Amino acid sequence: MTTHTSHTTNAEEFARARAAMPGGVNSPVRAFGSVGTTPRFFVSASGPRVTDVEGREYVDLVGSWGPAILGHAHPAVVKAVQDAAAHGLGFGASTPGETALAELIEARVTRDGARPVERVRLVSTGTEATMTAIRLARGATGRDLIVKFAGHYHGHSDGLLAEAGSGVATLAMPGSAGVPAPIAAQTLVVPYNDLDALREVFDARGDDIAAIIVEATPANMGIVPPAHGFNAAIADLAHAYGALLILDEVLTGFRVGTAGWYGIDPVPFVPDLITFGKVVGGGLPLAAIGGSAALMELLAPLGPVYQAGTLSGNPLAVAAGRATLDHLDADAYERIDRGAERIADAAASALSEAGVTHVIQRAGNLFSIQFAAEPPTDYETVKAQEAFRYPPFFRAMLDQGVSLPPSVFEAWFVSAAHDDEAVAQIVDALPAAARAAAEA
Ligand code: PMP
């Protein structure tokens, strides 16, 4: 369907962008480098659909990389932002809305009566949230080392890029230039789902480890669910050594359920700090760190751990976050879960029909295709898949009007606005894409 009067093409926009910005983008995977086609330049979005500069409409499974959980430009979210904007774009001072959002987060993240988030600090990006959580863990423990897992992505701060997922994985980079070796040395990288490897690291250096940081369920190397009880086991191990568990729910928080992955992991566990982003900001720049009052009150102005932000708790972002959380009721999650199930099932059938070796790993309503015979359990097995099958698959979907994440290492984001028509369009496009993957 054509809904926009076109004056330029995607190719023209990309050429112009490349002359103005490195790679033509403000975040690497948007350059479509690994999928071998021209990135689409979008001009509008509504519900489950996005429209590019050429006036072409796509059913969208990127969802702004997660925030658009109610669908794009949800009327209540847009209205909340407009109302907030009419009262001022920001004051650099406290607002009642910030407290209300903090209270919402604290109330929702609960399980069996436990409430791991007693205090919240709002920041602007997931990167800031994890960076601050790590500083807090170091400040609380007086220790320097951090443990992360290979293939997990926690944003682009210096200490967290080693063997990172997401764009770092897509570009096959081991880490990043520009990170001083002494800083990189403070991060110990362990294979995911490997408790023995983790125990060895703690045996050797446990007294110097401030925290383990973990994606609640990894979604930045494709979906790789935790082994049964893995989160509980690493929480226990960290605590046995006096270290903290930082649960990164930037991607999963308020997406896989009201209380995030924390609320649905088959084995309950106790995280010390939780980071949120994406959904909690409803599409505007907002993220958060939460934890017990005792830990969180180590932050300035009460404690010795410094953290600040000119735009932190921005009223427009707070309004978008509150309106989004307000509309994420049981019915919305039911629609997202059902849409995800139908699309994942249809993808599996189409790939089987085309004879493509694959697995579709799911974690709640998150899923992704992996071109492997056995379910990958860590970064090594993820990397061993036939990733070359994804670019033709992706392009065939795009040609049929479906916008997927432009990397095999990313999750597919279904929204509550993916109605029968949108799901049907995706389902109908899958067989041709599966055949393209088969021919790769
Ligand atoms: N943690 C996780 C689990 C993420 O998925 C991301 C972003 N994809 C981040 C942190 C970083 O968030 P941001 O891009 O907002 O800095």
Automatic annotation (TrEMBL):
<dbReference type="InterPro" id="IPR049704">
    <property type="entry name" value="Aminotrans_3_PPA_site"/>
</dbReference>
<feature type="modified residue" description="N6-(pyridoxal phosphate)lysine">
    <location>
        <position position="278"/>
    </location>
</feature>
<dbReference type="Pfam" id="PF00202">
    <property type="entry name" value="Aminotran_3"/>
</dbReference>
<keyword id="KW-0413">Isomerase</keyword>
<dbReference type="InterPro" id="IPR005814">
    <property type="entry name" value="Aminotrans_3"/>
</dbReference>
<keyword id="KW-0663">Pyridoxal phosphate</keyword>
<dbReference type="InterPro" id="IPR004639">
    <property type="entry name" value="4pyrrol_synth_GluAld_NH2Trfase"/>
</dbReference>
<keyword id="KW-0627">Porphyrin biosynthesis</keyword>
<dbReference type="InterPro" id="IPR015422">
    <property type="entry name" value="PyrdxlP-dep_Trfase_small"/>
</dbReference>
<dbReference type="InterPro" id="IPR015424">
    <property type="entry name" value="PyrdxlP-dep_Trfase"/>
</dbReference>
<comment type="pathway">
    <text>Porphyrin-containing compound metabolism; protoporphyrin-IX biosynthesis; 5-aminolevulinate from L-glutamyl-tRNA(Glu): step 2/2.</text>
</comment>
<comment type="subunit">
    <text>Homodimer.</text>
</comment>
<dbReference type="InterPro" id="IPR015421">
    <property type="entry name" value="PyrdxlP-dep_Trfase_major"/>
</dbReference>
<protein>
    <recommendedName>
        <fullName>Glutamate-1-semialdehyde 2,1-aminomutase</fullName>
        <ecNumber>5.4.3.8</ecNumber>
    </recommendedName>
</protein>
<dbReference type="GO" id="GO:0042286">
    <property type="term" value="F:glutamate-1-semialdehyde 2,1-aminomutase activity"/>
</dbReference>
<keyword id="KW-0963">Cytoplasm</keyword>
<comment type="similarity">
    <text>Belongs to the class-III pyridoxal-phosphate-dependent aminotransferase family. HemL subfamily.</text>
</comment>
